[in-house]
Amino acid sequence: MTLLEFTGCALTAFGPALSMFIVTIMNDPVRVIILIASSFFWLLSLLFSSIVWFVFPSNQQVWFGVLVSVLVQELFRYFLYLLLRKAERGLKRFVVHSLVSNNKHILSYVSGLGFGVMSGLFALINILAEVGGPGTMGLRGGYSAFCIVSSIFTAFIIFLHIFWEILFFHGLNTDNKSFILYVIISHLIVSEITLLNQYYFNTLALFIVFIITLGSGYYAFKTAGGHLPIIDRFKNQNTTTAAAEN
Q1: Residues 182, 215: contact at Cβ < 8 Å?
Q2: Helix (H), strand (E) at residue 14
Q3: What average pLDDT score do residues 65-72 get?
Q4: What is the pTM of this model?
Q5: 159 and 186 Cβ atoms separated by less than 8 Å
């Protein structure tokens, strides 16, 4: 039973990311390198956050630690952007069809996936270790769905980091501060909302994160040049109706 629960939770959390890696990244060595580099930058942000927490301990103010961690992650996201932009010339020298020159949003997608996977691993690895045996969580008044809820949260976080990376890089490329502010604020909201889980507001927290994920995904999709025929058709109908009324 523990093996089944471990497998189910692991695939729920990392199955979509694994599929994206196999389909879009695995066969391109440059993308693999960027994925690893972005994962390393997230680890650096975790190290720096730990140093700040050690120097300025706040044992009872977990929300403050979450705030510092989010701000540090966004700072290192910016450092990653600067590094990749400086490495762009080198990529164009050694790769005939550079992924940077082909589609600038692929770069942010790959680095966002690296950020998200490493974040998800550190968020869920201890839970998966406990689920693997010899027993399962949820006994003695514990929340029985804690493992699967945590796995779903982790999957959302991975998706969100991809969407945030696309919006953040686009904001820096176009000097649009609204995208950057949205990424920082939504990251803070999502991270602080997870603290509701200790009060067993899991469903509410999961629903809010789901809505933010949908919204961020839509804006990232539009930013990358994507189009949804249903939404475009609906907008065109509204425009036509408004024009006819006038």
Answers
A1: no
A2: helix 2-20
A3: 88
A4: 0.85
A5: no
